Amino acid sequence: MRLLRLVLSFAVLLSATKASIFAGYTVGRQFQYIGKFCFSWTSTLDDIAGRIAGEIETDVDGLQVAIYDDEALFWNFVMTDISCDCYCKVSAQHTKGVFNVTATNSHHVTPFTFNVDIREHLRPRFWYVALARCVPGGDQYKPSFTEITETNFRKYYFSSWFKIHMTQGDGSELPVQQQGLPAIYAVMAAVAGAAAAAQLVAVRRMRQSESFHPIMRILTLVVLFFFLCNALLFIHFTTYEFNGLGVPFFKYAARITDVFVRVGTLLLAMVIAKGWTINSVTLDGQIKLSCVILVILVLYLSMAMWYLVWLDPASTLYIYDSWPGLGICLLQVCVLGWFVNTILETRSYEKASTKRYFFLRVSTGSDTCYRTNPVLTPRFSDVLPVFGVFRSPAYYRARCFLLVAVGA
């Protein structure tokens, strides 16, 4: 029970880095990232594209709130240029705005508040919020744990409660890359729900006639997991529209069920390709198939760990551009080749025209689109500018991946 509470608490903590509301307590030194949000754009600079509102409560002097956008001389520069120290990071040349935080004490008990209106007329941009307390020599101060005293801590470190709320100009809580997802997942949940209901009715009839096919068992599990995944994501993103946080537990549960859907789809496709129970009683190559599924599970787990633990929270890197993601793409291509070769070989042994047509449809059907999806979407950012859409993988890749998956 304690372990479950710990996992749920950890999931809630992680979710705060993927929301429009960033709230909590932090201890930092020199410079501390707080949160990011992708704001939309308007036709002119007279209109407001978004807003950043915040409350900061601290008992140390010299704390500052720094605002950046994703232009080359701002966030990207201060995070990649090794010569840019703390004072450089909060300079007017590399920030969109800096606020000096008034410390809370016996004479001033009201938290410091600030508001920023976002004006952008070119394209959607990520904006970033960070806390900074620049102390001379602070960038070079790297003591061991035993060398940290109360005096040194109060000199070089800062602690603060914070609450940052970022919204679009129309009040929407959704960043650009998530706009439209509630409607998409509503449709997907409805379609998946109808498919799940039809599948359960079919299962009931097959059980009554004692003809519940093994492949149908796998298909039933995949359909149910697919419905559960989309229903959870629909609830999460619909709630997100109202509270800026969504339902973190549902989000992470949906990601887990999505892995089962992907692996189950692979297993289903391969047992059909091998003709198991269709034109062959035994399943050949069970060890090889089990190894492939295990490798895919490990890669998905690695990608999840990279995304949740090692990836910089400020990063906008597309998940399939990570090494585990690229590994999954490469393995998917290999599995696709194996799948097509296996099903065509199985089809060549089949004499019945109905079964041959079935194998042909499966080999050229949605599985091909599903397997190549992660490989195609990293290249969409190169194609989109041709159609007059700005080059921005962070905004479009995830949504392109989802839309292609829906089409499949």
Automatic annotation (TrEMBL):
**Gene Ontology terms describing biological process:** G protein-coupled receptor signaling pathway; response to pheromone
User: Which superkingdom does the taxonomy of this entry point to?
Assistant: Eukaryota
Q: Give all residue intervals belonging to the GPR180/TMEM145 transmembrane domain.
A: 201-360
Which Pfam families does the entry link to? GPR180-TMEM145_TM
Species this protein is from? Phytophthora nicotianae P10297
Cross-referenced InterPro entries, in alphabetical order? Answer: GPR180/TMEM145 (IPR047831), GPR180/TMEM145_TM (IPR019336)
Signal peptide from the UniProt entry:
1-19
Q: What is this protein called?
A: GPR180/TMEM145 transmembrane domain-containing protein
Segments passing through the bilayer: 183-203, 215-239, 259-277, 289-310, 322-344
**Alphabetical UniProt keywords:** Membrane, Signal, Transmembrane, Transmembrane helix
What PANTHER family would the database entry show? INTIMAL THICKNESS RECEPTOR-RELATED, TRANSMEMBRANE PROTEIN 145
